[in-house]
Structures are given as C-alpha cells and as structure tokens.
Amino acid sequence: MAASDQTQMAVLGGLSIAPMTGYALREQIRDALGQFWAESFGQIYPALATLERQGLIERQAALRAGSSTFAITPQGSARLRELLAEAPQPVKPRNGVLLRLFFGRQLGEEACRRLVMNTRAKAEAELSGLRDIRAELQSDTGPDAPYILLTVLAGEHSARASLAWANEALGVLDGISGASAAGSSAVPR
C-alpha cells in the first residue's frame, strides 16, 4: 500500500467518525491516533483535495470564512473499507534513542543513562494519558468506542514494554558503572 493510500485511509477513517475541517482532522489524528500514527497538514490537505476530486468526500457549508468541513460520501466509505482490507505495509522503525544507544560507547554512559531515563519518563506519561483515554471510553457508548479501545490497549502494552525495557537498560548501565569502578579500583601487580 502506497504512503498516499495510507494517508487517504487515515483521512477517510477520521471522516467516517464525524465530518470535520482539515485542522480538526489533523488534531483528531494527533490526539486519537498519535500513539501509533501521524499525518502532517502537508499530507492531509492534499489528500482532502484528491479525495474531493474523486468524489470520496464532499465539502459542506463553511461554518466560518476560510474553513471548510468535509464529510465522507458513500463511495468514500466503500473506498475506506477497500483500503482497510489491504494488508498493512510493514514499516521499518526509526528510533533515535536506540540509534544513539547503539553507538553509546561514543556518547558516554551518563548521556546514555539520561536517554533511557527520558524514555522511561515519556513512557510513564504516555501510559497515564492512555489510562485517561481508556477511562473516557468506558462511558462512551458510540459504535467506534470498542475499536478505539483496542488501539488504546495496544498503546498501554507498548508503554509498559518501554518501561520494562528502560528499567532493564538502566540495570545494564549500572553493570557498566560497576565494572568500570571495579576495574579502576583494582590494585596493579
């Protein structure tokens, strides 16, 4: 699946929940899907224009000047189901923290420790935010709520895995410190 198809899937999916402006769509993607998906304004607005030309979405009356609300059409719903049925495209992760840790000897132990501790703090904050979203979903009786919950659960598991990794990584770094300290305090013969 091409990247543009994935953007169209995210846009059509967002509009399948409710009509909204391009700005609101970007905010929803950031807030609701942000733990596993991102789209920029530079991706969303061209996708909206393409989808409108194709008749998959339609522009509704503007609530205020310069702001158009878009709604998915029946053809757009059909296209969304087609896109969702395609196999997900595997994506190689790009993790700047792990890249730096891989070359950690060059970076230094303390800088590596700070990276891991920052990662742990971010995972704790993410887990807390996801728990809040889950609590909100408990009272949501909308038809999308159980499916959204599936992604929240995945985010919670991922955050807990990051926490476990960070704690284990700090143990490894402590071992490096211990080995360095033992080596430097050894009495030469």
From TrEMBL:
Domain Transcription regulator PadR C-terminal: residue ranges: 94-174
Domain of life of the organism encoding this protein: Bacteria
Ranges where the Transcription regulator PadR N-terminal domain occurs: 11-82
Name of the protein in question: PadR family transcriptional regulator
